Amino acid sequence: MSMAEKDYWNIMEKFVEEAIDECFEKEPSLCRCPQCRGDIAALALNQLKPIYVSTAEGEVYSRLQELDWQNRCNLLFAVHGAIKKVASSPRHKDS
Ligand SMILES: [Zn+2]
């Protein structure tokens, strides 16, 4: 069984990706290179409590596309903090 076929995952990863997309849309000056995007996602996810769900539950979550307000607050706080940190000292190579 490959990793892609595992029957559980951290739904927070999906919400972090969505929040980063929203921020990138609102702030065109942010760097979108894979290094910065990866750093933002990893920083934010390390601060957030994972929410593991089975694949069946995950389908329900992706339909609702919602978190309760407390988790949503935590999510946005973590993502905004990570974006600020990465933007102030990006690790990508200047070319
Ligand atoms: Zn970058």
Topology:
Blueprint: E1 8-10, H1 11-26, H2 34-47, E2 52-54, H3 55-64, H4 69-88
Antiparallel strand pairs: 1-2
The protein binds zinc ion.
Description:
- The chain is mainly alpha-helical.
- It has one domain.
- Helix content is 63%, strand content 6%.
- It contains four helices and two strands, in the order βααβαα.
- It has helices spanning 11-26, 34-47, 55-64, 69-88; strands spanning 8-10, 52-54.
- It has a two-stranded antiparallel ribbon.
- It is globular, with a radius of gyration of 14 Å.
- The protein starts with 7 loop residues before the first strand and ends in a 7-residue tail after the last helix.
- Residues 31, 33, 35-36, 90, 92 line the site of zinc ion.
- Zinc ion binds at residues 31, 33, 35-36, 90, 92.
Number of separate domains: 1
**What structural category arises from helix and sheet content?**
mainly alpha
| Helical percentage | 55-70%
Shape descriptor reads globular
Q: What is the radius of gyration computed over CA atoms, rounded to a whole number of angstroms?
A: 14 Å
Give me the strand/helix succession.
EHHEHH
Largest sheet: 2 strands, antiparallel
Question: In DSSP terms, counting alpha (H) and pi (I) runs of 4 or more, how many helices?
Answer: 4
Strand content: 5-15%
Concise account of the structure shown:
The N and C termini lie far apart (41 Å). The chain has helices at residues 11-26, 34-47, 55-64, 69-88, and strands spanning 8-10, 52-54. The chain is built from four helices and two strands; from the N terminus they run E-H-H-E-H-H.
